[in-house]
Amino acid sequence: MTEPAPPRGFPTSEYQTRLNRAQTLMADVGLAALLLTTEAEVRYFTGYLTRFWESPTRPWYLVVPACGDPVAVIPSIGAALMGQTWITDIRTWSAPDLSDDGVSLLGETLREVCKTGKIGVPSGHESHLRMPLVDFDRLKDGLGAGQVTDDAGIMRRLRLIKSSAEIAKIRQACTIAGRAFARVPRIATAGTPLEQIFRRFQMLCLEEGADWVPYLAGGAGPDGYADVISPATSAPLTNGDVLMLDTGIVWDGYFCDFDRNFSVGHPSTIAAHAHTQLMDAVAAGLDAARPGQRAADIFHAMDRTTTGGAGGSDAGRNGHGLGMQLTEWPSFIAHDHTVIEPGMVLTLEPGVETRDGRIMVHEEDIVITQTGAEFLSPRSGNTLTVI
Amino acid sequence: MTEPAPPRGFPTSEYQTRLNRAQTLMADVGLAALLLTTEAEVRYFTGYLTRFWESPTRPWYLVVPACGDPVAVIPSIGAALMGQTWITDIRTWSAPDLSDDGVSLLGETLREVCKTGKIGVPSGHESHLRMPLVDFDRLKDGLGAGQVTDDAGIMRRLRLIKSSAEIAKIRQACTIAGRAFARVPRIATAGTPLEQIFRRFQMLCLEEGADWVPYLAGGAGPDGYADVISPATSAPLTNGDVLMLDTGIVWDGYFCDFDRNFSVGHPSTIAAHAHTQLMDAVAAGLDAARPGQRAADIFHAMDRTTTGGAGGSDAGRNGHGLGMQLTEWPSFIAHDHTVIEPGMVLTLEPGVETRDGRIMVHEEDIVITQTGAEFLSPRSGNTLTVI
User: Fold this and answer.
1) Is A192 exposed, middle or buried (0-12, 13-18, 19+ CB in 10 A)?
2) Quick one: B192 and B75 in the same domain?
3) What region holds the Peptidase M24 domain (chains A, B) (predicted)?
4) DSSP label at A83?
5) pLDDT at B272 over 70
């Protein structure tokens, strides 16, 4: 039985809750405002959803003040779409403007909403500033020395915990990708070029309901592949290969991120054993994934199974957060001590080296509940799927 | 007759030419190195092509020294794929590393290759720095005051002019999207929800040969739509609507960016007239697009046709550069005085307001030749296509 898709968008109350949480955290550290520049940051508080971020030309700004509603300072090309969100204070300029691309308007807005206190810009791990550096320097000069600081990790803290409405969207993305993966045996046969399989797989994702397919990587080879981030080559799939496809599709602005391995013909002993190891590692990770544990604990649980506790691989981690972006905080590594909490959406992504220069990686998506964790992706079987 | 697809990738000589051009420009301004952090910048000198940039977690660095070959300073997860490019000096760390995410390694590398002179980071219009601000500050502190400066517009200057091999890839992307657009009448019929048309159109792009579909926006309504950047809604296409689809597909790392308008049923007088105006504007833009003209001249040529010379619209410009990214420099606006040169790939994108709150926009892709310009996208007919 297919569950109905969740509703698109969020009620305004969702954004008000996010804003209240943000303003509580801002009050704790004395920030007068947050200045946000990236797609996910702007969308988090506004619901502004467009693929137009693919164009690097124009900067977009959102000011989240310590009191009151967010103010959008954006190119006029976005005014109509931003006007459909709950945001009412929308200030625009005609971008691109080569002499002043919104910097004065942004500076005025910040001076208006920040009577006292500093302006926090996300500056830590996994963040970046999506505006030209010369404009950032000009903005800082205009505001006065020391007025701009980091956001004290507030955006990370907020986005680490997903609401039930967010989780429903991620589950929907997982369900769609799961249906596409189930149809892979129909498109991936020995002799088919990998690039053709990649194209057909993306079409399956769309046909099953993906809004778009921002991420697909994979590989194929005997007993595994060299990495997990490569695009397709024209090499034909060959009997004896292990084929891996790893996708992040988007549904209503939320990602899934999981992969599947397939054996072309009867799996080798090495590949079959690796798959079992990966399933054991996922089970160990799932078992460790409960409130109060730390990200490092989940790493060690999986790492004990895959490397005997050697401490990881070239991939650098075996899982991570997930949500509005393909990958988010935390990381399942030995040194990430983030405390696991209900509402976190995470991937379990163990990898094993099958032989020199070849790996197999498996990935599932889970959500942390009050007592443990449950799968959002349709959990893989213990046997490698043969195609 | 279908022309054969160009070869994938580039010969090493293409990268050496790019490097030589960069080093000549660096010598002119006395830069010891370029420090690059974004997907397009890194790929420009390396050919490193992966969709893994969708993950914001890990920073990636490329150091282009004043003499010698580029040095990649990257997460170990990318070592295998970077090893397939012409780059031989690849330095990796196990990312994510929460205490030192490549900053020390990058600092050492920069100190090694930069004996004298400053390090240029792209900082101007349409650029951003893809690394955490705290890491950038740490890097600058480690290198010493004033060691990091902007890139003097070098990356912009290099990427403005495309090689014939690059143009062939953009032409291929245009050809593929053109074939998909030709099939729109089969998927877009009155009663079909817009979101379903968007999904099917992306599938057509893939079926016709797109590697992936990073961009699709559009809209539908009587006599036009409210903007050109919106994602799909669930509203059904209705008789009398003008449907617009604007796509940027990728083929071997290069984009097309053009749109098509369709009339659902017989076009209104307003829509038919607007289409004619847009075709006239494209013709005027094409006529103005030749070496020695300026970006502003092409703007004015189109603007005279669409607004009678009023000076533009909310979209902010009526065309732009195109290549490794959906949009690149220059902009067709009144104040962009970039001199047009052979090898520039540009979009002509005039828009008209059809009635209060509604617009129609048309877009084609062209390449500047020695004497003028030619179309890369299959030029639209003078009559609005009826579906």
Assistant:
1) middle
2) no
3) 169-369
4) T
5) yes
| A78, A94, A325 member nearest B56 (Cβ) | A325
Are residues A132 and B125, on separate chains, in Cβ contact within 8 Å? yes
| Within-domain flag for B7 | no
Q: Are B39 and B181 in the same domain?
A: no
pLDDT tens readout for residues B178-211? 999 999 999 999 999 999 999 999 999 999 999 9
**pLDDT at residue A1 tops 70:** no
For residue A137, is it left (φ>0), alpha (ψ between -120 and 50) or beta?
A: alpha
CATH code, A314: 3.90.230.10
Set of chain A residues whose Cβ sits within 8 Å of the Cβ of B132: 123-128
Q: What is the reported pLDDT for A117? A: 86
Give the model confidence (pLDDT) of B320-367 as tens digits.
999 999 999 999 999 999 999 999 999 999 999 999 889 999 999 999
β pairing state of B118-121 and B148-150: parallel
Provide the shortest C-alpha distance from residue B187 to chain A (in Å). 13
**Across B27-44, average pLDDT:** 98
Q: Helices marked H in chain B — which ranges? A: 12-29, 39-46, 79-82, 103-113, 133-143, 154-160, 164-182, 184-187, 194-207, 269-288, 295-307
Q: Which residue of B has its CA nearest to A102?
A: B125
Say if the Cβ atoms of A327 and B81 lie within 8 Å: no
Task: Kindly state whether residues A135 and A30 are assigned to the same domain.
Answer: yes
Q: Is the pLDDT of residue A7 over 70?
A: yes
Percentage of the residues of chain B whose pLDDT score is greater than 90: 93
Q: What angle do CA A79, A84, A88 make, to 5 degrees?
A: 70
Domain match, B334 and B185 both: yes
A206/B202 CB distance under 8 A: yes
C-alpha distances out from residue A296 to A250, A361, B75, B98, Å = 28, 19, 20, 12
The string of pLDDT tens digits covering residues A156-169 is: 999 999 999 999 99
- What ipTM goes with this model? 0.97
Q: Residue A50 is nearest to which of B125, B129, B229, comparing CB atoms?
A: B229
Residue with tokens 């009526």: B318
**Which of B159, B190, B215 delimits the end of a domain?**
B159
B131 and B17 in one domain?
A: yes
The domain containing residue A197 runs over which residues? 161-386
CB B317 within 8 A of CB B333: yes
Residue B315 has pLDDT above 80, yes or no: no
